[in-house]
Amino acid sequence: MLISISYDSDLKKAKEILTKLVQAEERILSEPEPGIAILELAESSINFTLRPWVRKEDFWLVHFYLDQAAF
Question: pTM score, two decimals?
Answer without folding.
Answer: 0.84
